Amino acid sequence: MASHSDANSLRDFWIPGHVLVPDSVVEGSNIDIEGPKCPVLVFVNSRSGGQLGGELLKTYRALLNENQVFDLGEEAPDKVLSRIYANLENLRLQGDHIAIQIMEKLRLIVAGGDGTAGWLLGVVCDLKLSHPPPIATVPLGTGNNLPFAFGWGKKNPGTDEQAVKSFLDQVMKAKEMKIDNWHILMRMRAPKQGPCDPIPPLELPHSLHAFHRVSEADELNKEGFHTFRGGFWNYFSMGMDAQVSYAFHSERKLHPEKFKNQLVNQSTYAKLGCTQGWFFAPLFHPPSSNIAHLAKVKVMKTHGGWEDLQIPSSIRSIVCLNLPSFSGGLNPWGTPNKMKRRDRDLTPPYVDDGLIEVVGFRDAWHGLVLLAPNGHGTRLAQAHRIRFEFHKGAAEYTFMRIDGEPWKQPLPVDDDTVLVEISHHGQVNMLATHDSKSKSVNDPSSPHHNDVEEDDSDDEEAKADEYRKFGAADTFKIPDEVDLAHLS
């Protein structure tokens, strides 16, 4: 338990037991009692960040009411939130003043990788609460794109009491910002032979919780077809970047003892990028696996009208991006200058405008352009919806990834009706620090409200060539100890 002085300093966050445990006895009247200024529920993936997840869980439980801190390895967030909100509603009907305040002021903290954070965001979206609580994300994974996008950093946090108190203070001061949610649907005719379900990387815990086959009773189910659905907040990607991610997750499952440190994880990720051919794609990656050869792509730029999207034949990875953070914090879309906005009808990447940014990469060297000021990938489109139609027999499988969670997707070789469609689904509330990279279309400080002229050069090839000589982001960098002569 926390000491008396700790309890005093943490009372702004402390939720009393009767709110958290149904049928608890309430002592006295709550009518005139002031509730906590910033009540929080904390969700920790104790398996994330090596040993950090477990240590963080212990610290939060020592500082707060143990019943307001949850281990996602023991209980799913939908069960937790359903139980607590049912109790809050029951107490509200009884006139419980504290419960009413908590319902209005509640904030959520989630500590884990991007997949864990997306899990909680999806649950909050699905529950359709009367007062949906905003969410702060603790960077406890490898990429940490969600925390970075909203100003919470990308390095694993300290787990001691002072670090947790400092984070709680930031949560109290954070501003609310809406974020788009995207629905992904995949439908294919039932193959004559062989499976078509997504293959997670060696059955990772929580893997693909956001992407699954629909039941026969689901309105999206179609007889004679297999239909899968899911959702994402940061990105959906397909191609070589997802292939490298799949290899990384598989390796981590085989040898978990080697993945206790974030820097080691990132170095291993980069090594796998080499061995998978991501840095030398023209040599090791067959053209038949390039995006343009795999699928026909269509976008809906204005509601109601589909149009073909021309994908350059050299593009090996395509990213549908909602946040300005990918591959450990890089911004593939950048901020188009006024000329690009006018000539190509492009906008900066707002997180609440109902548009998704579609960016392509040729290989990892191409990705190095993101390290240059105003560098960006190949901007393909901004759209309300995007559709991938796979060609008959184009490949036996492809690799896909949602918010850091990759899978290998078998494709029926005897059918040409494999369809993947992404569409806008709704919004949730995030908590952002004042250093947030994410921008709202309604925020006066966002780029479209000023006339700053960016360089925004399209000379990607030259930039990539230049940055081969320097250190790169984790996903794109070749570690010094890798012997290029022995790569195959």
Automatic annotation (TrEMBL):
Name-wise, this protein is: Diacylglycerol kinase
Q: Where is the composition biased (Basic and acidic residues)?
A: 434-451
Subunit comment: Monomer.
Q: Where is the DAGKc domain?
A: 35-188
Catalytic activity annotated for this protein?
a 1,2-diacyl-sn-glycerol + ATP = a 1,2-diacyl-sn-glycero-3-phosphate + ADP + H(+)
What's an example GO cellular component term for this entry? Answer: membrane
Q: Does the keyword Transmembrane apply?
A: no
